[in-house]
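Hi team,

Filling in the usual template for the complex we talked about on Friday. All components are listed, including any nucleic acid strands or ligand strings, so the model treats them as one assembly.

SUBMITTER: L.P.
PURPOSE: interface mapping
COMPONENTS: two
RESIDUES: 774
SEQUENCES:
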Amino acid sequence: MTAPATNLQKTDAPVVASVRDLRVHFKSKAGIVHAVDGVDFDVRDGETLGLVGETGCGKSVTARSFLRLVPMPPGIPVSGSIMFHPRQRCTACDGAGCVACDHTGRVVSTCPACSGTGCSTCEQTGAETLDLLTIPERDLRSIRGNRIAMIFQDPGKALNPALSIRKQVAEVFYAHRSDELLASAGIDPSSHSLPTGLLRRRATQQSRTLENVLLSLPPLRSRRSAITAAADDRVAAALAETQIPNPRAVMDRYPHELSGGMKQRVMIALALACDPDLLIADEPTTALDVTVQARIIELIKELQQRHKTAVVYISHDLSLVRRVADRTAVMYAGRIVEVGDSEQIFHEPEHPYTRGLIDAIPGAHHERGRLAAIEGTVPELIDPDPSCRFAGRCDFAAEVCWTRDPALEPVGDRQVACFIHHPPEHGEAPTFDRTAR
Amino acid sequence: MQIRDYILRRLIVLPFLIVGVSIIVFGLTRIGGSPVAIYLSHEMSSEEVAEIEARFHLDEPVPVQYAYWARGVFQGDLGWSGVAAAPVTAVFPNKLAATMELAVASAVVAVSLGIGLGTYAGARRNKLPDHITRIISISGAAMPLFWFAIVMLIVFWVYLGWFPIGRSTPEVFASISHPTGLYTVDALLAGNFKAFRDAIWHLVLPAITLGYGATAIIARMMRSSLVEELQEEYVDAARAKGLAERLVLRRHARRNALMPTVTVIGLSFGFLLQGTIVAEIIFRWPGLGRWMADSVLRGDRATIMAYVLFTSVLFLVVNLVVDVVYAYLDRRVVLGS
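RESULT (copied from the run log):
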């Protein structure tokens, strides 16, 4: 089967982030929970990667690992890397989009260790490479919300009830765009005078109580207000981009005064405020009404195209992922079992679990009043045995599935972790022709 | 509702509450017998006693006595204090200043230390600082004030001699004038650093002792509510924005954690006021509390009533302030609904 032209283009696109052998375990009273146990996948520039799986399969933990938001303890980082290649604004066109940057407005940052010639730090790619799991906290903070942003499942919980929308969105600009704010306020950020120092600390949210008192007094007051005004302009623009009507009025509201859809728009606005390379969307529509869902999905798609942002879209809703994602990764019990082009996966699922999931989507082929389901439940992830995690629920499982763990290996354009496609050297291989039960 | 309207509405209710409270306490003071005893001495004849009873309207029925007392309050006359041997209104301001100075200093200790310790412990849950704070706060809530105060007195005044007792050193007291009766403020007004240091020095021990119990309660509350808030998703969302941990803690988590703590602060102010009685007796602090204790023991009704009047107003005002602060912190609160 040939993939559509657009997807081929995406396949050639450079990799923004690559996850390799990610393992995150959790300590519990019963033992070590292998929540994420050897996950590999790439996110390519500008694409939408759907990450699907049922509750507890480790998709949220995988997503949060990008920003190191998994609480440790109880989480234990076991192994793996998330290599991220940040981009910067294209200098040739100043972000407008030109031939030099392939109309994305952004170019890959060059590796600071070898200035682009290729070295061991950047794996000979010449692009700046950061392992998100090991870089210092300080460097990570400059990436969070700036190069990689995140949207959460329930916007009602992800917004702070005590702060106005204005303050919550402005924080992103203060955290990552303080120089721009100072420049807009007509302050030379490179000056070393005391007033500039105080204002710079204000613009980077470092002011202490006493400094704030000084800043509220006449000589500095007007310049402080100029910084605030510069931030307000950016907040209003960010909110307007997510089609929030009357952004200036919404800015002064508190989260409880907005509807769920509105709150998610605010979250999207602040996530895209700094034009990130990668957006992690952790079930962004699950907590919303169905009618609002469709509009939020449209909005994310539209903004993604405008900003040329890569999106990792996490969901348990397969039919939704089919609509939004260029490529899909199917997760099961802490592993990725199948990755590939979304349409291909939907038409010809290769992994028995993916098959089961797609069969479970209610459709015309189902008898009225009956819903297909995968028998059994997700296995306990506490100190698992070396076996295929799906063996217990798989219709085709052979003996080898119980004794060995299939690796994720290529099948055509896709990657699948199943012995059906990669028969073991010894013993009988399972096939789709023979059911175990 | 506007905050201003809410405050006004609460202030309108205030007089009715005071009348209610004063009637109850006026009635209760009669249980210990006739209040006339405080004005008597052994040499008085029964005619003289009757004359005094008539002078203070003690020969009338209790409701009429209350009416006389209430009329006095409206005319600015709180009665004659047998304990102080002076009109209540003459003695009250100075004693009030002494008590307020102590209570405010204790409240400052309790609130700042309580919130500080609670934040410090909550952000380091189940680590050493948390355990130490837990020991401090549980001991603070468990020790009775009178016992703790005596121990503090023995250790820091008797043995170590680090802190004095009483309210000031006599010669320092005489060196400046006292327009407000708050010795620290008076010293600052006079620009006398030595007097200021002396006032602070006398204040430290009773303020810490009295504030300790409230510190413990506030720190416990702050710690547990901060631990709870730190598990909320908006904390992760704040981190995902790239904010420094200090901002995540202070601007995001602590602000929300303060909401339940503010209620506790309001309640512990009552606790503090009650504590001034014990602390003033033990540290020889010439305030309302000590005067009140003597008055209760000797049945000095005029003083008791003045004290009740004052504390009920103060308590209601503090609770009003707490409500307003709460509404400021949590925008979901609609005052008065």
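MY TAKE: Chain B touches chain A at residues 232-234, 236-245, 247, 251-252, 255-256, 259, 329-332 (CB under 8 Å). Chain B has a mean pLDDT of 84.

Thanks, L.
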